[in-house]
Records
---
Amino acid sequence: MTKVSDIKTKNWGLSVVSQGEVVQDLEDINQCITIILATVKGTDPLRPEFGCDILKWIDKPVNQAIPNIIKEAVAAINMWEARVVVTKANATIENYTIFVTIEWETVSSSLISSTQVQYNANRT
């Protein structure tokens, strides 16, 4: 468990998963990308352009949805996460779940990682 007193880097943030913990370096970037992709544009009142419009493609035909989901995700990351370069993006749909996988590398040290976000549609 990393606490605020253990921070040893300039790239860090409070964990959105574990109260009182922090994420650093690649974990921080991964968390920021997840937040960008999970936030619907217009829902942050102080930054109305923050986030990603992936959800507007949910009810479109798959051949239209997939390329536009990827386009929206990459554009949002390019806009809001200057510490990375997207090297590959993929979206798949399984049953009622959209999986968006972003492969990226850091600008400063060329470390490579990936982030996956899933969007579930509750259907009964």
Note: The mean pLDDT is 88.
---
Amino acid sequence: MPDKIDERRCSGPAAIVLIVACLGLTAVGAAWGCSAPPVADAQTLLSTRCSACHSPQRGQTTKKTRAEWEQTVTRMIGKGAKINTAERAVLVDHLAKITAS
């Protein structure tokens, strides 16, 4: 005789937790800008993402180390900058090269 599936295992608090977790991960992905296509060109990132709040010259004239740029870009993402992980790496690399202190 084949085993019966216990329908109780797929309902109740465990199912609700699973659904909420999936919805939460989807929301986090959207909040981090995962839906935006990555931009490989650092100049495009500066002119489209950073210049939304800053002058185009600001990132090019501010002298910072790579670690300082990592902190700055992370802080800007926390303030709402639409930069995904790949774009963050491109941007930090570029800013660190052109503004090495």
Note: Residues 59 and 95 are 7 Å apart (CA to CA).
---
Amino acid sequence: MQKLYDEFESRNIVVIAIAQEDKDLESHGKFYKHFDPEPRFVIAADFDRKDTTSYKRTSTYLIDTKGVVRQVFPQMIHYRADWRSILNEADRVLKE
């Protein structure tokens, strides 16, 4: 994601990551420190999944400007959707 961030940004696409596994600010801080360099996208914490229970864990959602989920990209520990594929799908949605 970090490598393609400029391409998302040039399309006016906002990237927000939600860390659902964190239990408190301390654990969220430890997770955040794994990024080097510091992430260029927002990483928010949802402690104990209080606000994101309707979303699947470890998935990427493409949500349009009206708040409609347009595509879900399942993510797993050993398999991550390619960010280029996500960007290509975002381009398709933007053309509509």
Note: The chain has a mean pLDDT of 79.
---
Amino acid sequence: MKPPASAPESAPWYRGVTGYQWLVLLLASAGWVFDVYEGQIFNVTREQLLKEVLPSGSPPSLIRYYGDVFLGVFLIGGALGGVAFGFLADRWGRRPTLVVTILVYSLFSGLTFFARELWHVGVLRFLVAAGVGGEWSVAATLVAEVFPSRSRAQASSIFHASSILGTWLATLAALAVGTEWRLVYLLGVLPALLIVAVRAGVSEPKTWMHAGGSAGSVWELLADPRWLTRAVGGLLLAAVGLGTFWGVTVAGQDLAREMLVGQGVAPDEAERSARFAYGIVQTAGGGLGLLAFGPLSVRWGRRGTFIVMQLAALAVVPVTCYAPREYWQLLLLLPLYGFFTLGIHAGYAVYFPELFPTRLRATGAGFCFNGGRAVAASALFFSGWLKARPGMDLRLAVTLLSGLFLFGILLALLLPETKNQPLPE
């Protein structure tokens, strides 16, 4: 059978994409949806979870502190898991490693149902994160290798944008179970069913097969000056996005809650409204930003899109923090807030696999994105300390944390442009 003829460059990006390529995008995205679900269920249930596992009567500042600490633990677990599983994907192959990562995060999410102590939560969040970080490394690499160059940016952007479905799923699940937060973690076992579909539907990419299954290592990645520069620059760029995600983007929920409580709304009602504001309204804007990154990066280049989105985020964050006086006004601004603070994350799936050769692609992409988690963890610990300081205005804290986007702009200026370039071999 002859391979399908390639579509001309002027044709729509989806013209000529095969059924198998769509299937790979679907399965990779499904894994990422549940990845994000596993991360977000802590974000939307942490108030109830921490009130139960902390000593009775713990002040809100202590709950907020441990909330950010456990987010930092999650980032560190994702960093180690992403690098380790990325290396295994280059050595074992993309398909078996993808199966293992899904199994890991599903199993340890379900076990969170039984958590009774702070250390239980910390250990389980670390292990869930290891699987989550690994799944992204493998899935992003798989999509980049399967899709043709003319469609790669858009497909990778769609892959990362599917994360919005994971946030919505976590939010709806949390709203449905109310104070029974343990049930939301038990539902996290369901992604294990994806293993059957991955094993049946996914083949190893031709690029990996042609490489003979040869794999580099983290040491090779760091020993070669060309790959080292890209790896460190990509890691720091991811750290900006991940640090601002947990310190700034997720704070949309806290901004809504504090506004409503300050206006005399009952705490339970304020919590539900804050979940809706962040998990549904803001996330819808974030999803549009993720989808937009691919087409914009085709037009402006990868670096240009990172720069424009981060410049816009610097302007939008303080406006969203200080301009609204009523809840409905905040709801109008939160989609824009999500669009620019979250939209850059699709760029990691587009950009990082384009920086490295086949034998180092999953290792390099995993090192960048998930190594960025480890660096971002320090920002989370700082964020927790800053927000918990007596008398600290949350709006000021969030605005100060958004200053990290300035560093992201500088990094984008220094990194190489990969638009219209073939994947390195």
Note: Residues 19-414 form a domain with the Growth Hormone; Chain: A; fold (CATH 1.20.1250.20).
